[in-house]
Amino acid sequence: AQSVTQPDIHITVSEGASLELRCNYSYGATPYLFWYVQSPGQGLQLLLKYFSGDTLVQGIKGFEAEFKRSQSSFNLRKPSVHWSDAAEYFCAVVLTGGGNKLTFGTGTQLKVEL
Amino acid sequence: GAGVSQSPRYKVAKRGQDVALRCDPISGHVSLFWYQQALGQGPEFLTYFQNEAQLDKSGLPSDRFFAERPEGSVSTLKIQRTQQEDSAVYLCASSASSGDRDFGPGTRLTVL
């Protein structure tokens, strides 16, 4: 079945430590790939996206993600986490040629310890 | 500029009541989307409008759910005869023709 998987429900990191949030997809063709962040009471904010080209994508707030076709993955990374990064992170896909339906993973809740 | 706004932000309904949730998209955005986000889950697609045309309603969970966008701007999501399983945050997003989606803050619906 076609799906977007975020294997980690919760992750806790210390402030200043590096971060990697995992995302895997299961589709026949490479979809368009996105990472969103959702803070309590806030709308979803787009961090970055991948359509084609360079597989390392830079986003806002110091985040980056790397598309790996061989692993069907699009993991989100940040070299040094700030306390304000505590939030829920969602990986999402749009199927190429599949209209406008944005399909989300179940999310990873990030906690930052001071 | 103003982002996507939704009202009300919180709604409590008794089981069986009808509710209407409003979305004001960013001015000029032709595309509008509704999502349902249950507690602890990612948002799930409900329906999509391009201007006033509802092009995809495949995610609406039952015929109790109805969405409209009669003039191609403001949209209303209506849920008839609410059930407890309808309790969720309902998110609205809008986008320009080929742009990124801007999400509203959501309406949290609690059905008692």
Overview of the molecule:
The complex is a heterodimer of chains A (114) and B (112). Chain A has 114 residues and is mostly beta strands. Helices cover 0% and strands 51% of the residues of chain A. In chain A, the strands form 3 sheets. In chain A, strands 2, 5, 6, 10, 11 and 12 form a 6-stranded mixed β-sheet that branches. Chain A has a 4-stranded antiparallel β-sheet with strand order 3-9-8-7, with no helix packed on it. In chain A, a hairpin with a 6-residue loop joins strand 5 and strand 6. Chain B has 112 residues and is mainly beta. Chain B has strands spanning 5-7, 10-13, 19-24, 31-37, 44-50, 53-56, 65-68, 75-79, 88-95, 102-103, 107-111. In chain B, the strands form 2 sheets. In chain B, strands 2, 4, 5, 6, 9, 10 and 11 form a 7-stranded mixed β-sheet that branches.
What keyword list fits this structure?
heterodimer; A: 114 residues; mainly beta; six-stranded mixed sheet; four-stranded antiparallel sheet; 12 strands; 0% helix; globular; B: 112 residues; seven-stranded mixed sheet; 49% strand
Summarize the structure.
With 114 residues, chain A is mostly beta strands.
Q: How far apart, in Å, are the first and last alpha carbons of chain A? A: 40 Å
Work out the radius of gyration of chain A. Answer: 14 Å
Q: Name the structural class of chain A.
A: mainly beta
Mean pLDDT of chain B: 95
Q: How would you sum up the major sheet of chain B?
A: 7 strands, mixed
Distance between the termini of chain B: 37 Å
Radius of gyration of chain B, in Å, reads 13 Å
**Residue fraction in strands of chain A:** over 45%
- Biggest interface, residues from each chain: A-B, 20 and 24 residues
The major sheet of chain A is characterized as:
6 strands, mixed
Structural class of chain B: mainly beta
Helix percent of chain B reads under 10%
Number of helices of chain A: 0
Parts with pLDDT < 50 across at least 5 consecutive residues of chain B: none
Oligomerization category of the chains in this entry: heterodimer
Q: What shape does the CA trace of chain A take?
A: globular
